[in-house]
Write a structure and sequence with these properties.
The chain has a single domain (2-89), classed as lambda repressor-like DNA-binding domains (434 Repressor (Amino-terminal Domain), Orthogonal Bundle). The protein has helices at 2-19, 24-31, 35-42, 50-59, 64-67, 81-89. Helix 2 packs across helix 3 (35-42). The chain has 91 residues and is an all-alpha fold. 63% of the residues lie in helices and 0% in strands.
C-alpha cells in the first residue's frame, strides 16, 4: 500500500504542475532548486522531506495532505488563530 500512495502522490505533483501549465524548470527556478531535483520528486527518485513538501504546498496553494493524497480537498487549510495573532503583532 505504501508504494501505491507514493506513486499517487507523485502523480499529484505532476497534476498540480500541469494544471498551471508550467514546466518543471519553471517550478524549480521559483523554488530555488534544480530542474533535476524537481524531476526526481515527480518520478520518485528521491524522497520529499518536510521542507520541500511545505514549499510545494505553499507554491501550489494547497496542503501537504492534498499532495500526499490524505485528502481530496485542494484548498489549503485555514491559518490557525495563533498564526493570525502573530501576524497582527508582527512576529
Amino acid at each position: 500500500m505504501y508504494n501505491f500512495i507514493w506513486v499517487k502522490q507523485l502523480n499529484r505533483l505532476k497534476e498540480l504542475r500541469e494544471d498551471k501549465d508550467l514546466k518543471q524548470k519553471d517550478i524549480a527556478r521559483d523554488l530555488n532548486i534544480t530542474q533535476r531535483n524537481y524531476s526526481y520528486y515527480e518520478t520518485s527518485q528521491t524522497i520529499l522531506n518536510e521542507d520541500i513538501l511545505q514549499r510545494l504546498a505553499n507554491y501550489y496553494n494547497t496542503s501537504i495532505d492534498y499532495i500526499l493524497y490524505r485528502t481530496d480537498v485542494r484548498k489549503p487549510y485555514p491559518k490557525s488563530i495563533v498564526e493570525d495573532e502573530k501576524e497582527e503583532v508582527g512576529v
